[in-house]
Amino acid sequence: MARTDGGPGKGKPVGASSGPTEKSQKDILNALPLAMLVVDEADGIGFANAAAESLFGLGEDSLCRMTIADLFGGTDNAITPLLSRIRAGSGVVVARELSLTGHLAGMLADVQAAHIADRAGAVLLVFEERRLPGVLQRRSNLEGAARTVFGLSGMLAHEIKNPLSGIRGAAQLLEKQSSGSGKDMAILIREEVDRIHRLVDQLENFTDVRPFTRRPVNIHTILSHVRDVACSGFAKHIRIVEHYDPSLPPVFGERDRLVQIFLNLVKNAAEAVPEKGGEIHLVTAYRHGLRMPMAEGGIVDLPVEVTVADNGPGINADLKEHIFEPFVTDREGGSGLGLAMVAKLVAELGGIVELDAGMEKQVAGGGGARFTLLFAAATGAEGEDNA
C-alpha cells in the first residue's frame, strides 16, 4: 500500500503520479449520507459537507462562521467534552444517543469524533440521527391499533345498524302518538339512536380497505381546500394562519385521504382553541434526512413536512403516548376516533404523524397541540404531472 505524507488534502501517495485534488475530496465528502463537520483547534467550524448543511438547516458558509458553542447553544453542550477527549489523546470516540441542543435541540444522535492527522487540535465529527427506531416502533403500534379496529368496526356495523333502524322507527311512532313526558322520552330515544348511528358510521370508515392509486398532489392545494371548508363552517370565527414553503415538491399521495387527514386535525384544533383569540397554524417545510423502510421493500425519503398547531390547552400529558389509539380522547363528548383515523390514513400513504412532545416549539402561541406529518415527495416523472 502506498504511503501518504501529510493530512487530508495535504499530500499525495508517495510514488504515485497524482493524488486526489481538494475539490475531489470535498465532492466525496459531500456525497456521503452522514453529516460531517471539521472543527479546528479554536472550536471553529472549518468544513461542513452537504449532509451537515441539511441536518443543521444552514449553508456551509454560515456554518464556517460559527463555533461549536454557537451551533449547540453555549459551552455547556454534549459535543465539547468529545472534543476535549480527542485532544487529550483518544483516537476515536463514539457517543450513542446524545441529546443535542442549540440548532439540533431535541434531537438524539450518535456522534463519532476522531483526530485529523497533521492538523493540531482539529477534530472530525460525524452525526447520525437516532430518531428512526422510535418512529418505526410508534408507527407499528399505530398500524396494529388500526387493524384491531378494522375487525371491531366491521362487526359493529353489521350487528348494530339493523336493530338501530327498528328502534328508531318505533321511537318515531311513539313520538307521534304521545304527548308530554312520553313524547319527550321518545324524542330522547330517537336522538340517542341517531348518535349511535353516527358513531357506527365513523367506525365503518376503518373497514374501507379498497385499493387506491397514489399520484403527485400539491399539498398547498389540499391545505387551502381544508382551510376554506373550515372557515365556512366549524372554524368560522377562528384565525387560520398559513406559513407555506413555495418551493415544496408535490406529495406522492391520494387527494381524498389527504383532505380527510387535515380536516380531522383542523377540526380537532378548532374544538380545542379558545372562543376568543383562537388560532390554528398550518406550516409546510422541506426536511432532509428521514428515511423509512416500506412494507413492500426498499427505502423511501419523507422530506415533505406539514405541521398543524393550535393555541388551545394542549394534550393531557397522560394521553400523549396513546393519543392515536382508538377511543382515546381528553375531550368531553369526543369519540376518540378522529386521530385514530388520521393515523390509519397516514400509514396507508406511507407517511408518519407525530404529536410533538416539546410544546416550547409551538408555532401558535400558548400551550396548544402540534402535530407534525411527514410524507414522501413525488419525484421524476411522478412530479411532472403536478407542475
TrEMBL record:
Pfam families: HATPase_c, HisKA, PAS
One GO MF term attached to the UniProt entry: kinase activity
Alphabetical UniProt keywords: ATP-binding, Kinase, Nucleotide-binding, Phosphoprotein, Transferase, Two-component regulatory system
Superkingdom as given in the UniProt entry: Bacteria
EC number: 2.7.13.3
Gly residues: bias regions: 1-12
UniProt keyword Transferase, yes or no: yes
Domain PAS residues, every copy: 21-63
InterPro entries from the UniProt entry: HATPase_C_sf, HATPase_dom, His_kinase_dom, HisK_dim/P_dom, HisK_dim/P_sf, PAS, PAS-like_dom_sf, PAS_fold
PROSITE patterns: HIS_KIN, PAS
Reaction(s) the record says it catalyses: ATP + protein L-histidine = ADP + protein N-phospho-L-histidine
PANTHER family from the UniProt entry: PEROXIDE STRESS-ACTIVATED HISTIDINE KINASE MAK3, SENSOR HISTIDINE KINASE
Official protein name in the record: histidine kinase
Naturally occurring in which organism (per UniProt): Iodidimonas muriae
